[in-house]
Structure formats: C-alpha cells, structure tokens
Amino acid sequence: MEKPTVALVYQAVQALYHDPDPAGKERASVWLGELQRSMYAWEMADQLLQLKQDVESCYFAAQTMKMKIQTSFFELPPETHIALRDSLLSHIQSLKDLSPIIVTQLALAIADLALQMASWKGCVHTLIEKYSNDVSSMTFLIEILTVLPEEVHSRSLRIGANRRTEIIEDLAYYSSTVVTLLMTCVEKSGSNEKMLIKVFRCLGSWFNLGVLDSNFMANNQLLMVLFQVLQRDETSTNLHEAASDCVCSALYAIENVDTHMPLALQLFQGVLTLETAYHMAVAREDLDKVLNYCRIFTELCETFLETTVKSPGQGMGDLRTLELLLICAGHPQYEVVEISFNFWYRLGENLYKTNDPALHGIFRPYIQRLLHGLARHCQLDPDHEGIPEDTDDFGEFRMRVSDLVKDVIFLVGSMECFSQVATFWKLGVRAGGAAARDCPYRSALHQH
C-alpha cells in the first residue's frame, strides 16, 4: 500500500458508513482494513483525530489507534512512546464531548499503552494529578481508570508475566488514591446518576482485579453510598444494575474471607439490609431489580459458603443468607430462582463431602423448602396440552431442576422427593396428565 492522504482515508470512511451501494461499502471496508494493518495507520489515525470532522471518522481513528497499540506496538521505536501518549491524552480531552464510544476507544488505547510502556511509571498517579481538579475532564479520567484494570489480563496485549506482576503491584499501590478520587466525584456530583454509574463501574473494575485494600474499603464512605443506592426504591434501572454489579464484584473479590475480614463483615451486613428493598421490587413487579437482588444474595451465599458449612448459624455463617435465597425461590418467575442453582449445587457437594449427619440435619429444612419451591416452578399451566418440549427455555429449566435434585436428594431422602412427585401427580391429573408424566423429579429418583 502506498501512503494515502488523510482526505482519501476520510472518503473511504464516509463510503463505509454512507455509500448506498453494498459493493462500495465492501470495497471501503477491505481498503480500510488494509490501511489498519499498515504502518501508515498510526499517522492517518492521529490526523483524523486532530481534524475532528465527524463521529464516524473519529470513531474509526480511535478504534484504529486502540487496535494498533494492542497488536502492533512493537512497530514504534521507544523514543516515540512519550509523544504518542501525549497525543492520545490531548485527543481524549478535545473529543470528550463528541461521543462516549470514542472516549471509550481512546481510553482503551491509553490503558493499553500504559500497560506496555514500561517507561511510564505511576501512570495512575500521573493521570489523577493531571486531570482530577478539572471537572470537565472527570468523565474520561474515570473511563481510563475503569478500563485500565480490565485490560491487565487482556489476551490482546503482548506483555510477559513479570511485566503483568509489576503492573498489578503498581495499581495496588495507587488503588486507595483511585477510591478517594471516586468518593470525591460522588460528593461533588451529588445525586448525578450518570456519574454514579461511572463511579460504580470503575470501583467494580478495581474489585475485579483484586487489588483494593480490605481495611481501607471497609471504612470507606463509598461502600455506604453503594448500599444506600440499592436500598432506595426510586433508584433507576441502570443505576441499580451498576450498583449490583459492583457489590457482586466486591463479594467475589473477598471469596477468601479470612484474609478480608473487615470488608467481608461490612458487605455481609450491607447485603442483609436489602431484603426489604427486594420485597418492594417484587411488589412493584420490577423484574430487573428482583434479578439484581437475587444475584447479590447468591453471590453472598457463594462467598460465605465455607463459613456457613463450618459454623452454621454463627457469625458470618448466619443462615439468614439461605433465607434470602429461599425468598427468591418463592418468586413466581422461575428465572429468579435459577440464578441461585450454582450455589445449591456447591452446598450439596460440600455437605456430601463432610458426611456429618448432625450438619445435614441443620440444612435439611432449607433443602426441603427449596424442593417445594422448585416443584411449584416446574408445574405446567392448567390449560397446557401435550408433553412439553425439552428444548425451550422452560424445558431446559426443568432439566436443570432435575440435575439439582440429583445433587441434593441425599440430604432429604427419597421419601421427601416421592411426596413431591405425588404432588406433581395430582397436579398433573388436573392439567391433563402432562405435568405428572414429565415431572423432572422422576428421573432424579429413578437414578437415585
């Protein structure tokens, strides 16, 4: 490929998005793909971003920059790295109001550059120092700080194990600074929903990397804000989902509970306060929020599973955690209880390994109530005719119930399941027999 002019590249981008002829679009796509693989892509992308002509050309350029840094960073001599960094930071600042997707692409490019550019020491500190006092820069600063931890384990980046370890240690060192910045953003923005969503996404990203200090987080106001948002009935769907994702990430990060005790206790107590909010979401028939709460309750149970089995009813082995999941099992939509299946599988596996009759006796009533709830969920509508399909969503749910029953049947005994089958049979006769003939408990009992 000969070096193209920026005008020719812009023309090709316009053809890609706006040419009414499909063949023209295809030719533009092939040519632009060839350009992206060439050395000229660096310069052309930089010039397009400087021109700032429209969303399409800037998006193509930002995406090209990201791709080149991810896959072809070796093409650039080390002496050009600082200029590239400064150029990208200038672009993201000047384009911050054009489109969120362009900001995200440039943020990814900057993050991937920081991870590969060993000479850029303390990149988090540099970015916070440079932009944290400028309110208009806060949006893209938080976006960079969100994608940076996410990119550490990216398979697209050619970084060795030693460099990755160095990066993680560096991010851990500055993690408390990031959390303090996020809390400052919340205080300055008040109840600005878009900013809260960005803050929770960023916090979740740092939890996922596993570098946040547990003692620092346990006493941080941001944790309280997180649960306040989840407790409020008026919280919007998008904000509720972001807060729920963040809590789930936090719970997953402390799975080794003994080494994160202060934070574990705060999260444990925080989640237990959400039961009333769950009931309110059920009353308002807000399925999105109901599913979010069930995800949080399930993650809580998964995180404290070993504690619950070792010391049921004591401290963070509090069996109210199981009560929360059984409350969810009572929701009329089977999609809700299905979220918790993996926990019940794991609980059954743990109890089977312990082979302790006294311990089994403690958990038996919970499994009995679970089976009763599942039996109701597996019932067919009274007006259903014929045998249900195994391949539709409901059929697959019933198959998963059957698998779960096989894993927990040892706790309750066959007679308990036979009583459930009897219930099915009666209901099946009333519904024309299909429910009884196709009861998912039958195959579980047969194998048992």
TrEMBL record:
One GO cellular component, as annotated: cytoplasm
InterPro entries: ARM-like, ARM-type_fold, Exportin-1/Importin-b-like, Importin-beta_N, Importin_beta-like_NTR, TPR_TNPO3_IPO13_2nd
Bilayer-spanning residue ranges: none
Domain of life: Eukaryota
Record-linked Pfam families: IBN_N, TPR_TNPO3_IPO13_2nd, Xpo1
Positions of the Importin N-terminal domain: 30-93
Example GO molecular function: small GTPase binding
Domain Exportin-1/Importin-beta-like positions: 100-246
Name of the featured protein: Transportin 3
